[in-house]
Amino acid sequence: QVQLVESGGGLVQAGGSLRLSCEASGRTFSSYTMGWFRQAPGKERDFVAAISWSGGWTYYADSVKGRFAISRDDAKNTVDLQMNSLKPEDTAVYYCAADPTYNVVRIRKAVAYDYWGQGTQVTVSS
Asked: ∠40-26-100 over CA atoms, to 5°?
């Protein structure tokens, strides 16, 4: 069982930056694929970024590539999402997720992840 707690959300102006953090419980964190998803009101939960269990491979949605960066610190059981050049369309609730497997075919799909945090709100004003 893994419990995930996100932090770092807030209100920022367009062009600004935020850093989200997700802290995980459990002694096997280093073996999990970790992902970030987001959900805007009335929309589906969309993939944002993911990082492999080794940290050697990262994946991004086209809409955030070049602006967002995912990283993990297995010593601290954390995975972070650095978000730069934020746009109003980035406004959403951001969720951290954990997948005990590593499957490059499913890594961008929410159904692949077994554990989810409660979410943190990110609001970007124009």
From this structure: 65
Among left, alpha and beta (phi > 0; psi -120 to 50; other), residue 107 is: alpha
Phi, psi angles (nearest 5°) of residue 64: -120, -5
Residue with tokens 């949605």: 61
> Could you report the per-residue pLDDT of 47-96, keeping only the tens digit for each?
999 999 988 899 999 999 999 999 999 999 999 999 999 999 999 999 99
Task: Tally Cβ neighbours within 10 Å of residue 45.
Answer: 16
Determine the Cα–Cα distance for residues 48 and 37; give it in Å rounded to an integer. Answer: 5
What letters, b where the CB count within 10 A reaches 16 and e where it falls short, cover 5-42? ebebbeebeeeeebebbbbbeeeebeebbbbbbbeeee
Integer CA distances (angstroms), 82 to 3, 24, 25, 40, in order: 21, 17, 21, 19
Nearest alpha-carbon partner for 7 in 89, 19, 85, 29: 19
What is the rounded CA–CA span in Å between residue 16 and residue 14?
5
CA distance 19 to 26: 23
